[in-house]
């Protein structure tokens, strides 16, 4: 009898885990589908880049992140400065941007900003190559140096 109760409990836990995994996958797919249709929003002279998530990483190795957020990720390109947020909001003049990079993997299309005055980087996942391309083009027009990957995205 105890053996049967253990099997029932294990089956129940397995079903609950499967339901949780399914709900998570559907949630992520929904967010990515919305991101695929999104575009940069102009608010006066500022461009708000839609992000699904944002990450703080080390300059040169953005995939080694130490913080992330999908609650209120922010990338706004103002006329004279860039505003980005993972956990807290940072505002930097465009002259402080040492490099703009582009990183893509399964489901991610990241605009990566590195700054001259710190060892960290900001990566904003647009989940959309067209949005990333438009944001990188705007950053280039502001005088920010672009990496080879970012230039290839603009040329492609």
Mean pLDDT: 88
Number of strands: 10
> Which range does the strand content fall in?
35-45%
CATH topology of the largest domain: PH-domain like
Uncertain stretches: none
Largest sheet: 5 strands, antiparallel
Number of domains: 2
In short:
The protein is an alpha+beta fold.
Can you tell me about this structure?
The structure is a single chain. The chain is 37% helix and 37% strand. The protein has 156 residues and is of the alpha+beta class. It has two domains: 37 residues; 116 residues, Pleckstrin-homology domain (PH domain)/Phosphotyrosine-binding domain (PTB) (PH-domain like, Roll). A five-stranded antiparallel β-sheet has the order 1-2-5-6-7, covered by helices on one side. A five-stranded antiparallel β-sheet has the order 4-3-10-9-8. A hairpin with a 4-residue loop joins β9 and β10. The protein is elongated and about 75 Å long. The mean pLDDT is 88.
């Amino acid at each position: 009898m105890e053996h049967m109760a253990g099997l029932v409990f294990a089956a129940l836990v397995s079903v609950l885990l499967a339901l949780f995994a399914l709900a998570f996958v559907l949630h992520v797919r929904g967010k990515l589908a919305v991101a695929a249709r999104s575009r940069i929003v102009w608010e006066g002279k500022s461009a708000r880049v839609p992000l699904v998530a944002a990450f703080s990483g080390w300059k040169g190795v953005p995939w080694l992140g130490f913080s992330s957020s999908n609650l209120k990720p922010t990338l706004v390109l103002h006329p004279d400065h860039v505003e980005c947020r993972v956990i807290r909001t940072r505002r930097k003049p465009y002259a402080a941007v040492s490099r703009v990079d582009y990183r893509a993997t399964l489901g991610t299309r990241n605009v990566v900003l590195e700054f001259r005055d710190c060892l960290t980087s900001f990566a904003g996942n647009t989940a959309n190559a067209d949005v990333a391309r438009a944001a990188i083009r705007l950053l280039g027009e502001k005088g920010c140096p672009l990496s080879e990957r970012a230039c290839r995205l603009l040329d492609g």
